[in-house]
Design brief:
The complex is a heterodimer of chains A (417) and B (284).
Chain A lengths: L15 H43 L2 H6 L1 H7 L10 H16 L3 H11 L3 H12 L7 H8 L6 H9 L7 H6 L2 E3 L5 E3 L6 H33 L2 H16 L2 H12 L4 H8 L15 H24 L4 H9 L4 H12 L1 H16 L3 H6 L7 H12 L2 H25 L9
Antiparallel strand pairs in A: 1-2
Chain B lengths: L8 H32 L10 H4 L9 H8 L5 H30 L7 H13 L2 H14 L6 H25 L4 H8 L4 H30 L2 H6 L7 H10 L4 H31 L5
Helix pairs in contact in B: 1-12, 3-12, 4-7, 4-9, 4-11, 5-7, 7-9, 8-9, 9-12
The chains are: A mainly alpha (417), B mainly alpha (284).
Chain lengths: 417, 284
């Protein structure tokens, strides 16, 4: 074929290539229009709000907007000695404005987060500032309370100047920026978030391991049994899968309580004394047991669908070539199930790492996860920006795992039941 | 799975150990559900087996918690059940329509940026629920839809569509597109072709996706906890509150009803799956 070949024309006289491209584009647009309603719905109601979380987690405009003149005047201040009259005057003007709008309470709360001791001196300033005379604000403000003459407090105000901050993320890792701007960890006994992150990883990891160890034999049994038996046994996997999460959690609460069935059984077989029944709920044990049972179907189903495709003659071939059943299993069967193992493990791990309901009900104080902390800040402390920051930290972890999952299995291969 | 006659004794022992382990795991999976049944008929107010129940004394059993569930004074279950069904039905309809249409587009081979768009569409399934809950709450609060049925229905559509997209795309992967071309060549317009040819063929996938969406909505508690006001209470919310505050056997009566419901859904889903596999020519 050379470029001199005559162009092929359609019946309308348009070159075929052009006509094909046009048809192709029309098909593309058609396909896209079908996807568009759902795509835009999700972008507006779901993707943007997650972006909104990002904005909230770094947003620190509150103080910036409350003291605009002060921060403008502070731009030229070197932050070593006490600021000069210009800054004090700007601060006085901003402050009067806030008092007029009854906003000074918010300012004192916010500044108190940055440095303790602002609450009382702002209250005092509000009372005294009514009688301030014009001019020489520096001396008048410093006369209100000795802390107003302390440069550390002015430095604290200046630290709130930027409109954005990564402080919430640092807090999520139990770190903070100290007065000289270095990032340091909080004292050892106050590192609650690191404990939670580690515990979340630990529980998710062990739940995945337990699920794998339990799911592998039964998936194998289901895949090798004749249809009529395996269908019956499959119900044991699918019924819990379709049953309400809360129902399953409730049944574990009944089983694991101190007067519960499991403890009754232990006493009956003489494992524990009647008056020394172990506490199996409201601690890590409760979280482990309940989460493993609840997430087990998510491990069985991908393993089963992979094992179903492995021909039994492969094992027979392995054995006939002289391998013992164990060697045949380890060298032939097991490697073939690795895609299923990858899918199941990552699915269970992703689900476990974001678990909320079950740990909240059976986990007690020592079995709760990072999700519970997020919910706590959303509902109780109302520190939404902190909840957003922790949520995004969790999300980025999940996305990394998801990316690995996609590399290994591909998202198109997710199988549901 | 009988062993061949020539199996050596120690493999025989291993085999029985393996079967015992499998039996134990199946027991672990299914037994917890069956604890709820007998206890929901408990005549007493405790959540453990009374001595009367252990000796099968008929007086130890009663229907009082079922009566309490239905007629109990100031009981929230009636309103909760009504809300749950209304929300789940509308969320299912929304998810099925949006999800099926999107799946049709996604399985076209002309679809640009397929991977990226698929990732966005199924993201609500991968992102931990607590994060979805926070994000959806921010949106609904801004849109003025917090504590309304509409808000919760929209939230459940977000969570339910990935299931519909996945099941319908899977059904469409075995779909022979020449039948729609045949319909078109016989003069059928696309809408007619879809209603008369495509939809009946992919219906099992659509319905099983719809079932997933229904169950997702009916069982969803994390997002509703952020969104619901007192008027929008649902069955999962009531169970959550009940389990946290006072564990009354009424919850077990509700749980029994829910297990029966999920059994029905399981049977339907299984029948559909088999029908769909038969239609797609997968013989197992």
């Amino acid at each position: 074929m050379s470029s001199e070949t005559k162009q092929i024309l359609t019946t309308d006289g348009i070159p075929l290539e052009v006509s094909l491209k046009k048809a192709e584009r029309r098909n593309k647009i058609k396909a896209f229009l079908l996807v568009a309603p759902l795509l835009f719905f999700l972008i507006i109601t779901y993707v943007f709000p997650i972006g909104d979380m990002l904005m909230r987690s770094v947003d620190d405009k509150m103080v910036t907007n409350m003291l605009p003149k002060t921060f403008k005047a502070m731009e030229t201040w070197d932050g070593q000695e006490l600021p000069d009259e210009e800054v004090f005057e700007a601060f006085y003007l901003d402050f009067r404005q806030l008092v007029d709008n009854k906003q000074e309470g918010k300012l004192s709360t916010q500044l108190n987060y940055t440095k303790n001791g602002f609450k009382s001196i702002i209250k005092k300033l509000r009372r005294k500032s009514k009688n301030f005379e014009e001019g020489n604000y520096k001396e008048q403000i410093m006369a209100v309370h000795k802390r107003w003459a302390d440069v550390e407090y002015w430095k604290a105000i200046k630290r709130r100047a930027p409109a954005y901050t990564g402080q919430k993320y640092l807090k999520g890792m139990d770190m903070y920026k100290n007065e000289s701007g270095e990032i340091v960890s909080v004292e050892k006994d106050r590192r609650i978030h690191r404990v939670l992150w580690l515990r979340t990883l630990e529980i998710a990891f062990f739940v995945t391991v337990f699920c794998f160890l339990m799911a592998y034999p039964i998936a194998h049994l289901l895949a090798t049994l004749p249809m009529k038996y395996s269908n019956l046994l499959m119900i044991c996997v699918l019924l819990p899968f379709w049953t309400s999460l809360l129902v399953r959690t409730a049944s574990w609460m009944i089983l694991l309580q101190q007067q519960g069935v499991v403890n009754d059984f232990f006493v009956m077989i003489g494992l524990v004394a009647d008056d020394a029944r172990p506490e199996m709920m409201f601690n890590k044990t409760g979280s482990y047991v309940a989460m493993t049972q609840i997430l087990l179907p998510f491990m069985v189903l991908p393993l089963y669908s992979v094992m179903k495709t492995i021909s039994p003659s492969l094992m027979r071939a392995g054995k006939s070539l002289g391998g013992t059943p164990f060697i045949a299993f380890w060298k032939v069967y097991f490697p073939l199930t690795i895609p299923g193992i990858g899918a199941g493990c990552l699915l269970v791990f992703i689900l476990a790492i974001g678990y909320y309901i079950t740990p909240a009900l059976v986990g007690g104080a020592s079995g709760t996860l990072i999700s519970n902390q997020i919910a706590y800040h959303m509902k109780s402390t109302l520190d939404w920006s902190f909840a957003s920051a922790m949520g995004l930290m969790l999300l980025s972890g999940v996305l990394v795992i998801y990316w690995i999952y996609n590399k290994i299995v591909g998202i198109d291969n997710i199988k549901l039941g | 799975m009988a062993l061949p006659k020539y199996t050596e004794p120690h493999y025989r022992i291993w085999h029985y150990i393996y079967l015992t382990i499998c039996g134990a795991v199946f027991f672990f999976l299914i037994a917890p559900l069956f604890v709820i049944f007998p206890l929901s008929f408990n005549a007493e107010e405790f959540l453990s087996f009374s001595d009367g129940m252990k000796s099968l004394d008929p007086d130890a059993f009663s229907l009082r918690w079922y009566k309490d569930m239905i007629y109990g004074t100031k009981n929230p279950w009636g309103l909760a059940a009504k809300n749950s069904f209304i929300i789940a039905i509308f969320a299912t309809i929304g998810s099925v329509i949006l999800g099926t249409v999107a799946a049709l587009g996604l399985s076209s081979r002309h679809m640009p940026y397929k991977g990226l768009i698929m990732a966005v569409l199924i993201s609500p399934m991968i992102v931990p629920l607590i994060i979805s809950g926070v994000a959806i709450f921010f949106f609904m609060a801004k849109a003025g839809l917090a504590a309304t049925h509409t808000g919760i229905v929209l939230a459940h559509i977000i969570l339910g569509t990935p299931f519909v997209v996945i099941t319908v795309t899977a059904t469409l992967s075995g779909f022979d597109h020449s039948v729609t071309r045949a319909a078109a060549s016989l003069g059928s317009d696309p809408v007619n072709t879809f209603m008369k040819i495509t939809l009946p063929l992919i219906l099992p996938g659509v319905i099983s996706g719809g079932l997933f969406a229904f169950v997702t909505s009916f069982d969803e508690v994390v997002v509703v906890l952020f969104l619901a006001g007192l008027e929008n209470t649902t069955i999962p919310i009531q169970m959550w509150t009940g389990l946290r505050e006072q564990l009354s056997p009424t919850i077990l009566a509700v749980a029994t009803c829910l297990i029966i419901l999920s059994t029905l859904i399981l049977v339907t889903a299984e029948l559909l799956r088999r029908r769909s596999e038969r239609l797609r020519g997968i013989n197992r």
